[in-house]
Structures are given as structure tokens and as C-alpha cells.
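Suppose a colleague, Dr. K., hands you the sequence of a protein chain of 126 amino acids and asks what its three-dimensional shape might be. Before reaching for any lab equipment, you can write down a predicted structure in C-alpha cell form. Begin with the sequence itself:
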Amino acid sequence: MRNARKLFLVYILIAFPASAQLETSAATPPARDTKAAPLPLDSRCIAGQWHEQTDNPFRWIFEVRGDNLEIWRTDRFVSGKFRREGSSWQGQLQWGNGETWRNVSLTPTSDCDEIHTNQSWWFKRK
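The predicted structure, expressed as C-alpha cells, is then:
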């Protein structure tokens, strides 16, 4: 049986010299880095819960996925999808009554305390 294995290995080496590789050591394969890459500063800044302005009860969740941002109001009446464009996010909101607001812009302030919009409201951390 041992000779049959040797003959088979010799056959593989002769028949497929470029693809045959024998591992001569029992070294462990290199460890893969499984830690997620850190989000850019503005992505970390914008992710999380936000208050719609300071004088109403609405809260929003902002979830960053790479260059995409999904937001929704906690009552689920409105949600939106945005794409990063420079230091702001451009996208649209879909309302529970069927309306769609296109070309909505979200821009976090430099201290990440507010997000300004091109609408009549803004977002603030509390």
C-alpha cells in the first residue's frame, strides 16, 4: 500500500508539475485578520440614534453600511436610503402615506452634534 501511494505521488509530480505542491512542514497557516475595518470618522459620527430637532418626540436610527446609509424613524412611518457624496449623504425618504422625497441631503456638523438637512428639520444628539 505504501508503494502505491509513492507511485501515485510520483505520477502527480510528473503529470502536473506546475500545480503539484508538497507541504514539507506542519506549520499553521497564517492567521486571518477577522477584525472589521474601522468606519471613517463621519460614518462613526452619523451611525446611531438621533432626535428630530429638539422640540418634538421623533427619534431616528441611522445605520451605515460602507458608502450607504439607511435611516428610519422609530415609529417606522418613514425610512430612507442614502449614498455618501463627499462629506454629506444624498438620497430619498419613503413615507408611510406613499410619498417619496427625492434629493434629500444630510450633512453632519464637524463636532457631530447635529445633522443638517436641505429640508425644514434637522437632527440632534441628546
